[in-house]
Amino acid sequence: GDKVKQSPSALSLQEGTNSALRCNFSIAATTVQWFLQNPRGSLINLFYLVPGTKENGRLKSAFDSKESYSTLHIRDAQLEDSGTYFCAADPGYQNFYFGKGTSLTVIP
Amino acid sequence: EAAVTQSPRNKVTVTGGNVTLSCRQTNSHNYMYWYRQDTGHGLRLIHYSYGAGNLQIGDVPDGYKATRTTQEDFFLLLELASPSQTSLYFCASSDGSYAEQFFGPGTRLTVL
């Protein structure tokens, strides 16, 4: 089965609203990364996390290694936030496992 | 910011063809990775390396070889390309264990 499960698989948001994306892990993740794949296909680094939380502007992410999940919160969604969000978990031996992504569309 | 470049950016070949994808990173990172991205699968690890001359097998290595010639350069080789290898290929690098990965722009490969 999938080692990293992302939810939801797709999401539409009205501009200015908030949402949360989630990753659940069936492996013992030591670190987590979140990426945004933009419409051109480029992977943009958002967060790199050990257990704990980080915040960057309108984005906030948390990683709980004991409960095996991570979240990405988007506040005041903007049109440029549209794209596909991926999380990736490292069980500690540099073999990253990716989720299948959450496709986000921000609507004006 | 890590700089990872890939070439070519697009490649079309025929079944049975020989293809080499190139990746270079200029930040002296130890680890380099090759992934493929397919609809419905996310990114899947093909091969990775933690230094020149080193090669480790990832999750989907069948049909692929890789070679790490220098700390900067990592190559992915498809010696007998098949249509199932049509995909978007990403290279990435990181500074070692418990370190952030940085991705190149991707190479879109089509095998006819």
Describe this structure in words.
The complex is a heterodimer of chains A (108) and B (112). In chain A, strands 2, 4, 5, 9, 10 and 11 form a six-stranded mixed beta sheet that branches. Chain A has 108 residues and is mainly β. Helix content of chain B is 0%, strand content 52%. In chain B, a hairpin with a 4-residue loop joins strand 7 and strand 8. The chains are: A mainly beta (108), B mainly beta (112). Chains A and B meet through strand 4, strand 5, strand 9 and strand 10 of A and strand 4, strand 5, strand 9 and strand 10 of B.
- Helix and strand composition category of chain B: mainly beta
Give the end-to-end Cα distance of chain B, rounded to a whole number of Å. Answer: 36 Å
CATH architecture of chain A: Sandwich
CATH topology name of chain A, in short, is: Immunoglobulin-like
Largest sheet of chain B: 7 strands, mixed
Radius of gyration of chain A: 13 Å
CATH architecture of chain B: Sandwich
Percent range of helical residues of chain B: under 10%
CATH class division of chain B: Mainly Beta
Total number of beta strands of chain A:
11
- The gyration radius over C-alpha positions of chain B equals 13 Å
CATH topology category name of chain B: Immunoglobulin-like
Overall structural domain count of chain A: 1
Question: What proportion of the residues of chain A form beta strands (DSSP E)?
Answer: over 45%
Query: How much of the sequence of chain B is in beta strands?
Result: over 45%
Number of helices of chain A: 0
Q: So what's the overall shape of chain A? A: globular
